[in-house]
Specification:
5-stranded antiparallel sheet; Creatine Kinase, Chain A, domain 2; 5-stranded mixed sheet; about 20% helix; Ubiquitin-like (UB roll); 10 strands
Length: about 240
């Protein structure tokens, strides 16, 4: 169905009180967004995100960065990364550390700091790494790193789709590769300047989670969610 050319879908994204999990919701604008200042502060229920109590649950979202939305590519749509603040719009909400990092980067801007980040993650399906046998464990590590073939590059179709979404959005993603364990992948953010590296890393986390969602999968960013050695993969923790 055709939409008014001026309508913009803005997907507000934030880190919840776990410090790990991303949340999002969509705000409709009846105008095109051309700069960050066009985006309004918004609120959500912090008591449902581990950041507030029921009697005082309103948490404010402050837009700090936005990119094109690869999931709504046929209309005006953006992904909006936000900082979170309590009801006074001054006190940072639980696990809002970006505002501290932004201050440090502002103080250090004369040094023009450059950063790159490697982000590893596992694809999961029904609480088990994606593509692993229903019983037992896959072949020992060694063959999977940068591997090729259905038995080695497990879930390539998911990360390939995410890679295209990263680049469509405008994220500075240097590359991707299969990692040392089956269903483990990596993308590299950078080179970027200042706070942009962290912003792009978190937006990429959101995107890969959304892409995996369409395949019925989850993403686990824990560095080693399954115990194992180079010789064998033992029981999960």
């Amino acid at each position: 169905m055709p939409l008014d050319d001026n309508i913009t879908f803005a997907e507000y994204i934030w880190i919840d009180g776990s410090g790990k999990t991303l949340r999002s919701k969509t705000k409709t604008y009846l105008n095109k967004i051309s700069k960050l200042e066009d985006l309004e502060w918004w609120t959500y229920d912090g008591s449902s995100c581990l950041q507030a109590v029921t009697g005082d649950s309103e948490i404010w979202l402050k837009p700090v960065c936005y990119v094109k939305d690869p999931f709504r590519a046929n209309c005006n749509a953006i992904l909006v990364l936000c900082e979170t603040f309590t009801h006074d719009k001054v006190t940072p909400a639980r696990f809002n550390f970006r505002h501290l990092a932004a201050k440090i980067m502002e103080e250090a801007k004369s040094e023009d700091p450059w950063f790159g980040i490697e982000q590893e993650f596992f694809l999961y399906e029904k609480k088990r790494p994606y593509g692993w046998p229903a019983e037992g464990y896959p072949e020992p590590q060694l063959q999977y790193y940068c591997g090729v073939g259905a038995s080695n590059a497990i879930g390539r179709q998911i990360i390939e789709a995410a890679y295209r979404c990263f680049l469509y959005a405008g994220l500075k993603i240097a590359g991707i590769n299969a990692e040392v364990a089956p269903a483990q992948w990596e993308y590299q953010v950078g080179i970027t300047r200042g706070i942009e590296c962290g912003d792009h890393m978190w937006l990429a986390r959101y995107i890969v989670g959304r892409v995996a969602e369409t395949y019925g999968c989850d993403v686990d960013f824990e560095p080693k969610p399954v115990k194992g050695t180079i010789k064998s993969l033992s029981n999960p923790r």
